[in-house]
Amino acid sequence: MSVDTSNIAKEGGGVFGWLDRRYGLTPLVEFMKHKEVPVGVHSMFWYYLGGATLFFFMMQVCTGSLLLLFYQAGESTSYESIRFITTKVPFGWLVRSMHCWSAHLMIISLVTHMFSTMMLKAYRPPREMTWVTGFILLSLALGFGFSGYLLPWNELAFFATAVGTDSMKAVPGIGDFLLQVLRGGTDVSINTLHRFFGLHVVILPLVMVGLVTAHLLVIQRQGMAPPQGHKTAPKGMRFFPDFALRDLQLWLMCLIVLASLAVFLPYGPHIPGIEWELGKKANPLAPAYPGIKPEWYFLWIYQLLKEFPAHFLGMEGSQAAVLLVGLLMGAWAMMPWLDRRAQRDEASPGFTDIGAATLIFLGFLLFKAWDIGGGGIGDKLPDPVLTARICAFWWLGIASVATALRATVLHQRYFLFTAATALQIALHGLLGMQYLAAGGIALVALVIGLLVLRSRGQAVPEVRS
Amino acid sequence: MPTNDTEPVRTRRSLLDLLLGVGFIGFAASALYPVLRYLKPMASAGPGGPLKLTADEVGKLAKEHSIITRLGTGRVLVFEDAQQNLRALDARCTHEGCTVQYVPGDSVIWCACHNGRYDLDGRVLAGPPPRPLALYGCTRDPDGSVTIQPPKKGES
Amino acid sequence: MIGLLLAALFAQTAAAAPAPAAALPKPLAALADGKHKDGTPILTQKQRDTLAALPERTIKLLSDAADSMILGSPEELAALLSLDVQPQVLDLIATDNCVLCHADPMNQKPKALFSPDPKAAGSNPLLNLRELVSDVHFRAGLSCAGCHGGKPSDDVMPKEIATRWPAEEVRHTDRSWIPEFCARCHSDTQFMRGFNPTLPTDQLAKYKTSKHGELLLEKHDNNAAQCVSCHSVHGIRSAKSRNSTVHPQKVPETCGKCHADPEHMKGYLTSAGAPLPTDQVEKYKKSVHGQALLVKGDLGAPSCTGCHGSHAAQPPEVASVSQVCRRCHAQNGMLFDSSRHKKAFEEHKWPECGQCHGHHDIQKPTVSLIGNTTDTLCGKCHAENSKDNPKCNETAKHFRTTLDEMIAGREEVSGEVEHLAEMGLDIEPVTRSLSDLDEAVTQSKAKVHSFSMSTFDAAAKPGTEALQKSRQEIGEAHNEFQFRRRGLVGAIVFMMLLVAGIGLKLRELERSRKDSDKP
Ligand code: FES
User: Which atom of ligand 1 is nearest to B129's Cα?
Assistant: First the structure.
C-alpha cells in the first residue's frame, strides 16, 4: 500500500510529526479514534476474552524467549537444563511456572472466548473467517501445548507423548506415516524431542503470529460483532482510548492472577493434566506406569478413545474414535455455515443449545477422565462404573441448574440438544449402559425430536431481543 | 470565578498523573527486576557439566592421596594410585550405600560398613557389594587443575 | 497289505485329530501312536509337538532305545517328554539303560520306579525323575552307575550293584558309611579336577571335625546330618542354583529341617548343658541378616553357614564368634579391639559382639541401646558390673544425646524439605547436607565401638555441622519464599495502583467529554 502523500500533514513536531510526515499516520489515528465497540444487551465481559487470550499469548512469547536462553535440547541436557533453570537461575522458577500457568490460562480464556462467540452467534456473516481463523488458532494452541509438554524430557511427559502420538496411527491411510513423521522414528525418542522443539519454538510461533495478525486484522476491519438483532450498534464505546484502557486494566488483572498462581503454586494445582513437577528424567527403557494422562484439554479425546471397544462398525475402535473427533471438530469449524438462521440474522436458539450441550458433553468426559468418584486411592484402581455414576450425578446436576437458569433468566425455550446429552449421561451413568450405546439411543431420540419439531412447522420458538 | 473552578480539577489531574506514574514505574520495575536478574550470567558452570576441583581440594589430594567431593547430587572419590595417575569413582558403596575410602597401602577401595573391597577400577574384589562402582573420568590439566567427568549413561 | 491298509486308516484318523507322527522312525512312531484301551492317544498334543521338535540325533537315540525295547512303553515316552528338558538331557537319558528301565511304569514296580510325579505314581519320593535329570552328577554324565555301580550300557543289572554299600538292613539304620562314600570322589583331587577344578576337596576332613561328623562317625548317631541330609539324594544341585537346597537363601530352611524340629533335637544339649533350642531359624528370619538375605535378596548377607561353617559346622565358641562377625564388620571389630572394653570382656569371658547385639536374632542396632539409664544396654550392664562408673556413664550419655540430636534433627529437617519442594524452592543443598548427616550418623554409630569420646566426636562433628547447615539452608529457603511473597505483594500493589489510575482516568475522560458536550 503506497502512502498517499497529498494527505500527509505538513506541520506537527515531535516524533509523531516526524513519523506522520513520512508514513501518513493520521488516517490510522483517525480510524482508531472513530472505531467503536458495540455496547449492547450483553455484558461487555465477552468482548474482553479475546484480549485476555492475546495477553496470555504475549506472555508465552516473553517467558518462552527467556526460557530459550537457558534451555538446551538434547538427551543429556533437556531435563538437566530445565532443572537448572528452576533451581539455580535467579527467578528461573518464576519464568518457567509463569510459562506453564500462562499456557493453561491461555487455553482457558481461548476456549471461553470461543464459546462466548458461539453463544452470541458472533460468527454470523460477514464474520465467518474470524471464526475459522479463531478455530485454527485454537488448534495451534493445542499443538503448542502438546509439543511443549515433552521438552523437559521427564518421565510423565515422555509417556504422555508416547500415548498421545500413538493415537495418530488411527488416522486412516496415512496414520503410520504421520506417526513416524511426528516421532522422527517408530518410537518416541530424542529425535521426537528435537522435532517438537523445532515445532514449539519456530514453526508454530511463525504460523501463530501470522494467524493472530490475520484474526486481528479482520476484526479491526469489520469491527466487533454487534449484538444479534441489531444491524448496527445502537450505542458504541470508543475503541481508543476507552476500550483500550479497559483492556489494559484487564491485562493487569490477568498478570496479577498469573503471578500469584506462579508464586504460590509453582508446579500447578496438582490436578492430573495440570501439573508440571519435573519428577524423574525420562528413561525410554523404563516400563510405563498407570495414571499417565495427557494435559486436561486433551482429556476428553483420551476418554473418548477409552469408551470405544476394540472394534466398532467394522473399524478399529481407535480409528472410529479419531474419526468421530475429526467429524465433531470439522462440524465445529463449519459452524457459521451450518447455522442458517444466524446467517439470516435470525435468532437460532438451536445452536445456542448445541453450545450448551457441547459443554456438558465435554465436561462429563473430562470428569470421567479424572476418575472423579471412582475411589482410586494409592494402588487401588478406580472403579469405572462408580466413576460413571458419580460423574453423571455431577453433570446431570450442572445441566439442570444451567437449564433452569437459561429458562428463567435468559428466557430460552430450546433444550433439545441438552436433553439428548443428559439422556446419554443418564443412560450411561445411572443405568450402567455402554457409553456408545447410550450415545446411540440419545442420538435416535434427538433425531426424532428434531423431526417432530419440524413437522409441527414451528421448528424453533422465535425469541427476539 | 474561573480560577476557583479549574483549580481542583488541575490538582486532581496532577494527582491522577502521579498515581499513574508511580503505578507504572513500580510495575515496570517489578517486572524488569526478575528479568534482569534472570538474564545476568551466573558465576558457576551450567547444569550437570564437568566439575573442576577447587585449589583446596587439589592441595588435599596431593597431601592425602584421596578426597571425596560432590558432583551433582552424588559423591565422588578422587584418588591418586601408586603410579600417580588420578582416578575417580562413585563413592557410594553399591551394597548399602556407605561412603567408600581409598586404602593406598593395599591399593584397594574399601567400604568399612561390611568390609566390601573394590579394585582401583571399581570392580568388586570381596565382600557383599553386588555391583562395581561407577568409574568417572578424571584428568589433570596442564595447569595442575583437576577435572572430573560424570560417567556416560549405560557404561558403569 | 492289511497292515498297510490299517496304517493308512490310522493315519487318516490321526490326521483328523492330532498331527501324524509321520517323520518318526518306526519303533518310535509305534510308541508315539500308542493308545489307551479306550482308544485315546497316550501322548498329549503338547508331548507330540515336543517330540516332533526334537533334533534328529535325539530322535535316533530314542528310536534305538525303543527298538531294543528298553524304552518300553508309550507311557514311559510320555513321561520323558513331559520333563520339558533340553534335547541334550534327553540324549543322556536315552543312552542310560538304568534310567530307561527304571522309568518305565509298565515294567517297574512302584517301589523301584522313577517317575516325574512319585506321589501320583505311588513310588518312593526319592525316585523323582524330574529331580534326577537336573542332578549335577547326572548332567555331568556320571549316571546312576557312578554311585550304584554297573554301567549305563548294561542290559541286565550286574551283581556288583548290590555290593558297594552296606547290606540293606544296615545301611539305613547306620548311615555313617555315607560321608566316606561320597568322599571316594570328592576327596580325590585328581578325580575332581576332571569335573570342577575349583571345587574344594576337603569336605570330608572338615566334616569329621564338625559336630555332625562327631555324632555320626564316633557315636553312630543316625540323627546327625551327613552329606545327603543337606544336599539331597537324587536331585543334587550346585549351590549357585536357586533351586538347590544349599543355595544361600535356602540354607536356613535346610538347616531348620532338623534344627527347628523339637522332636528331632530332643536330648541334644548345649556346651553349657542346657537343652539345645530349636528357635534359631525363627529368630534368624526376623534378624537383620535374615531380612537382608531372604527379603532384600542380598546374597552377601550371612545365612547359618556364614557363622557356623558348612561342612565343619560347629557352634562358634566365645573366642571365635567375634572373629566371625569381623569378617564383614571389620571396622567395628578393630575399634572394639583398641577399646577399653576388650580387656573387660575377656576377663568376664564374654563373647564380644554377641554380648550386646545377640546372636540369631541380631536386630539393626538403634540408639536405644546406648545411654546411662538402666533401661539401656550400656546403663544396665554398667550398673551390674562396673559399679556405675560416672565417667563411663557420662560417655554413654554423651553418645546418646549426640546421636539423638542428629537423628531428631534429621527427622525435623526432612519433614520440611518436602513442603519446601512443593513450594518450588531449591532443596538440593538441604538434601546434600542431609546425606552428609546420614553418613556422619552411620560413622558415629560405628565409632561408638571405640567407647572413646574423642573418636566418637571426631565422627559426629561433621554430622552436627551438617545438621546446622541444613537448618540454615531451610531457613534460607524460608527467607527466599518470604522474599518471593513480598515481591509478589509489592508488584501487585503497583499493578493495582495502575489499574485504579486507569479507572480514574477513564472516569475523568467521560466527565470531560460530557462537559464539552454541554455547551
Ligand atoms: S555398605 Fe559397603 S559393604 Fe556394605
Answer: 3
Of C489, A248, C495, C505, residue with least CA distance to B22: C495
Tens-place pLDDT, residues C265-288:
988 988 888 888 999 999 999 999
C422 to chain A, any CB pair closer than 8 A? The answer is yes
Is the confidence at residue B2, as pLDDT, over 50? no
Q: Which domain does A197 fall in, by range?
A: 12-282
**Which amino acid is present at B84?**
Q
Cβ of residue B95 lying under 6 Å from some atom of ligand 1: yes
Q: Which three cell numbers stand for residue C264?
A: 528331632
A91 with B37: Cβ contact below 8 A: yes
What residues does B118 pair with on adjacent strands? B109, B124
Q: Do B114 and C300 touch (CB under 8 A)?
A: yes
Q: Do B42 and A77 touch (CB under 8 A)?
A: no
Tens of pLDDT, residues C60-108: 999 998 888 888 888 889 899 988 888 888 998 988 888 998 988 888 8
Delimit the domains of chain C by residue range.
Answer: 1-164, 365-498
Same domain membership, residue A391 and residue A260: no
**A52, A251 contact by CB (below 8 A):** yes
CB contact under 8 A, C488 and A260: yes
Asked whether residue A208 is assigned to any structural domain, the reply reads: yes
Instruction: Give, for ligand 1, the residue of B77, B108, B113 to mutate: max count of ligand atoms closer than 8 Å to Cβ.
Output: B113
Tell me, yes or no, whether A137 and A274 share the same domain: yes
The residue extents of the domains of chain B are 51-149
Q: Report the gap between the CA of A200 and the closest CA in chain B (Å).
A: 22
Cis peptide before C74 (omega within 30 of 0): no
The residues facing B80 across adjacent strands are: B86
Q: Tell me how many helices (H) and strands (E) chain C has.
A: 31, 0
Q: Which has the closest alpha carbon to C84: C50, C58, C60?
A: C50
Distance C33 CA to ligand 1 centre (A): 60
Contacts of B115 in chain C (CB under 8 A): 327-331
- The CB of B113 under 6 Å from ligand 1? The reply is yes
Q: How confident is the model at residue C395 (pLDDT cuts 50, 70, 90)?
A: very high
Residue at C489: amino acid letter: V
- Which CATH number, 1.10.287.130, 3.40.640.10, 2.102.10.10, 3.40.50.2300, labels domain B51-149? 2.102.10.10
Strands, E assignment, C316-448: none
Contact predicate A53/A109, CB 8 Å: yes
Q: In terms of Cα–Cα distance, which of A119, A109, A3 is closest to A56?
A: A109
Give the H/E segment covering residue A82: helix A78-87
Alpha-carbon distance C108 to C119, whole Å? 15
pLDDT tens by residue, B124-145: 998 889 899 999 888 888 887 8
User: Which DSSP letter does residue C111 get?
Assistant: G
Query: Is the CB of residue C233 less than 8 Å from the CB of residue C126?
Result: yes
The separation between CA A121 and the C-alpha centre of its own chain, rounded to angstroms, equals 18
Q: Is the CB of B96 under 6 A from ligand 1?
A: yes
Atom of ligand 1 nearest to the CA of B93: 2
Q: What is the model's pLDDT at position A465?
A: 36
According to CATH, the topology of domain C365-498 is Butyryl-CoA Dehydrogenase, subunit A; domain 3 (1.20.140)
Residue A4 has pLDDT above 70, yes or no: no
A88, part of any domain: yes
Closest-CA residue of chain B to A59? B31
**Number of domains composing chain A:** 2
pLDDT tens column, A153-190: 998 889 889 888 888 888 878 888 989 999 998 888 89
Which partners does chain A have (≥3 C-beta pairs < 8 Å)? B, C
Does the CB atom of residue B151 touch ligand 1 within 6 A?
no
Are the C-beta atoms of residues C59 and C89 closer than 8 Å to each other?
A: no
ipTM of the complex model: 0.85
